[in-house]
Amino acid sequence: DRMQPLEDGKITPPSVLAHGLQNHPRTSIGVKGSELVFIMVEGEGCTLPELQHVGLTLGLKQFLNLDGGGSSQFRLWDGERYIKNAISAEDEKRVLGHVLILFDESLK
Q: Does the structure show a pLDDT above 70 at 96?
């Protein structure tokens, strides 16, 4: 509940001040009703205003850019294998300083 409401054309600094106006791969999370929505932008990437447009198009009311570039990694275990975003070979073994891990109730 501490995430800023998503407003068209408004991006909370300092995100936009650093690499926010440059194209980078992005990993983000948003809220739609009672669901969490994850967005991955690969390849050439996008700017934060472009990512915001995606969030608004998906109907997200709150939205957070998690990271971009080589530290923007995503893994989802589907019960048999990991679904993951495309990252460079050099970033494949990169040690990440911050991670977000979610478990479902089946792991209790």
A: yes
**What is the pLDDT at residue 45?**
87
- pTM, to two decimals: 0.70
What separation in angstroms does the CA of 57 have from each of 8, 32, 51, 87? 10, 11, 10, 26
Q: Which residues contact 106 (CB under 8 A, 6 or more apart)?
A: none
Smallest CA-to-CA distance from 63 within 93, 90, 32 is with 32
Residue 13's pLDDT band, with cuts at 50, 70 and 90, is low
Q: What are residue 19's phi and psi, to 5 degrees?
A: -105, 15
Helix, strand or coil, per DSSP, at residue 78 = coil
User: In a 3-state reduction of DSSP, which class is residue 43?
Assistant: strand
Q: What share of the chain is helix, strand, coil (3-state, %, to 5)?
A: 20, 35, 45
Token pair, residue 12, equals: 């909370």
Surface-to-core class of residue 40, CB atoms within 10 Å of its CB (0-12 exposed, 13-18 middle, 19+ buried): middle
Structure token pair of residue 20: 């926010």
